Amino acid sequence: MLTPLPSIDRTRQVIDALSDFIESSKLQAGDRLPTERELGAALSVGRSTVREVITHFQALGVMETRKGSGTYLLKPVSKATIHMPLSLDTAHLRDALLQTLEVRRGIECEAGMVAAKKRTSKDIAIIEEKLDEMERVHIAKGTSGPEDLAFHLAVYDATHNPLFKQLLEQIRGTFERFWTHPFDRQDFARRSFPFHRTLFNAIVAQDPEAARAETLKILDVVEEDIKEMSK
C-alpha cells in the first residue's frame, strides 16, 4: 500500500516509494500507473512533486506519458534496479551510428565469446530456430530486419548474463527509427547475411575466438555500409 510520507526529501522519497509500489504490485511493462492525482493523494505530496518524479523516470527510459491516456511502465522498476539511459546527438546520423558501432564491437564480440562458452543445448536449439527463420525470410524478401534482431537477441540470451541483452537492446533502441532501414536503404548490411550462419557454427563448436571473428565480420559490413551509404 502507498502511505503518506514525512516532509523531508520529498522527491527522493517519492522515487523510492513509487519504485516499491511498482515492485510490490508486480507491475509489468505496458501496465498503466495511477494518475498524478491518485499518487499525490496517496503519498501526501503535491502534483508538482509527482510530475518531477515521473519526469525522472521518463529520463531513465522506464516510463512514458501518453496524452489523454496516462503514464505507462516501459521496463521493470525497483530500488535495486540500475537504469542507464543512453543519449547521443542524432543530428549527424552517420557520426552517431559510427559511434554506437564502436561500442557495439566491444559488447557484441564479448557476447559472442561468452555465448560460445556458456551456451546450452536449449540455447543452441533456440538460436538455430531464429537463424533458420532469418534465412527463410531473407531468401524470400532480400531483407530480414526483425528476424536478424531475434537471432542476435537469442545469442545474447545464451550468455546467461542479462546485461548483454539489456545494453545492446538499449543501444539499438536509441536508434530504433534508423535501424530498420538506415539511409532508406533496404539493402543495408545485406552482405553480412552469410556470417550469421558461421557465427552460429562457432557458438555450436564452443569456439570463442571464432565467434569473435564472425561477429567482427558482421560489424565490419555494417561499418562499410554506413560509410558508403551516407556519402
Automatic annotation (TrEMBL):
Keywords: DNA-binding, Transcription, Transcription regulation. Residues 8-76 form the HTH gntR-type domain. Gene3D superfamilies: GntR ligand-binding domain-like (1.20.120.530), Winged helix-like DNA-binding domain superfamily/Winged helix DNA-binding domain (1.10.10.10). The keyword Transcription applies. It comes from the Bacteria. PROSITE patterns: HTH_GNTR. SMART domains: FCD (SM00895), HTH_GNTR (SM00345). The keyword DNA-binding applies. InterPro entries: GntR_C, TF_FadR/GntR_C, Tscrpt_reg_HTH_GntR, WH-like_DNA-bd_sf, WH_DNA-bd_sf. This is FadR/GntR family transcriptional regulator. It comes from Rhizobium calliandrae. The lineage of its organism: Bacteria, Pseudomonadati, Pseudomonadota, Alphaproteobacteria, Hyphomicrobiales.
